[in-house]
Amino acid sequence: MGILNITPDSFSDGCELGEAGGNSFQVNLDKVLARAESMIQAGAAILDVGGESTRPGAEDISSDQELERVIPVLDSLRKHFDICLSVDTSSPEVMNEAIAAGANLVNDVRALARDNAVELMAASKVAVCLMHMQGQPRTMQKEYHYKNVVSDVCQFLAARLEVCEKAGITRERLLVDPGFGFGKSVAHNFELLKNLEAFEPLGVPLLVGLSRKSMLGAVTDKAVDQRLAASVAAATLALQGGARIIRSHDVAATVDAIRVHCAYTQA
Fold it and tell me: In DSSP terms, which residues pair with 3 in a beta bridge?
């Protein structure tokens, strides 16, 4: 899953796909299409488009702002490429418009917790990824508490899966993400990475996003733009733990790691 952040302030690549000026952010569709084409040629199977930054400390934005960023991008990507498109959003309004624009997957860091989100997705036919986050982006890294991070996250995701199924979203349409970096310490993140097999009983594919994250910077002492090796190492460990989808900024290197892992497991 290649990441296309359509924001001025995402932690790793904010503003790379547009221009910010004053209080506005203007998407550059030529940059988006060039980045998308590069990712597809490198082996991406999914493109994940996000218009809301969910980095630690990020400010909230309105659904209208998010729509202005995301919908033209989805329209353009669908016109130019035959590929699975994901929208990274928690807003039911954005979900609805994104599905109409051709999104095949809704990737929600808030696990469909907002009003009407579950009902909207139940009425659709697209896939849904439910992520665990303790707190909200603005404050999630200031305070967090777990009795046992692995079992707590598993229990949360199991509960959200049950809510979705009761609403009519079939299990075949569901994925889960443990939410690395979302309301978790460095130790919590590595404990989750070491115990990804614990999510297998949930019975749905596991999506993992570790690319360039602060947990990797904490152990390598490398800046965000110098975490490629650490990101690929973490992705490989996630594959060993049962991850089925790897969300990454660096598609080419990550696809190489996936291919080596596949050859190793099939030998």
Answer: 48
**Is residue 60 predicted with pLDDT exceeding 90?**
no
Res 18: pLDDT: 65
Kindly name the residue from 55, 69, 110, 247 that is annotated as catalytic.
247
C-alpha span between 130 and 146 (Å, rounded)? 19
List the catalytic residue out of 110, 184, 213, 227: 213
Query: Does pTM surpass 0.90?
Result: yes
Q: Is position 194 annotated as part of the catalytic site?
A: no
Active site residue 213: yes
Q: Which of 175, 251, 82 is nearest to 259 (CA)?
A: 251
Distance, in Å, from the CA atom of 160 to the CA atom of 156, rounded to the nearest integer, reads 6
The answer to whether 73 and 6 are in contact (CB under 8 A) is: yes
Between CA 8 and CA 121 the distance in angstroms is 28
pLDDT greater at residue 21 or residue 25: 25
φ, ψ (nearest 5 deg) of residue 131: -110, 150
User: What spatial distance separates the first Cα and last Cα of the chain, rounded to whole Å?
Assistant: 25
Contacts of 42 (CB under 8 A, 6+ apart): 2, 251, 252, 255
Distance of alpha carbon 29 from alpha carbon 112, whole angstroms: 29
7 within 8 A of 25, measured Cβ to Cβ: yes
Tokens read off for 22: 């004053």
Q: Is 103 helix (H, G, I), strand (E, B) or coil?
A: coil
**Category of 177 on φ-ψ map: left (φ > 0), alpha (ψ -120 to 50) or beta:** beta
Cα 146 off chain centre by:
22
Residue 148 structure tokens? 């046992």
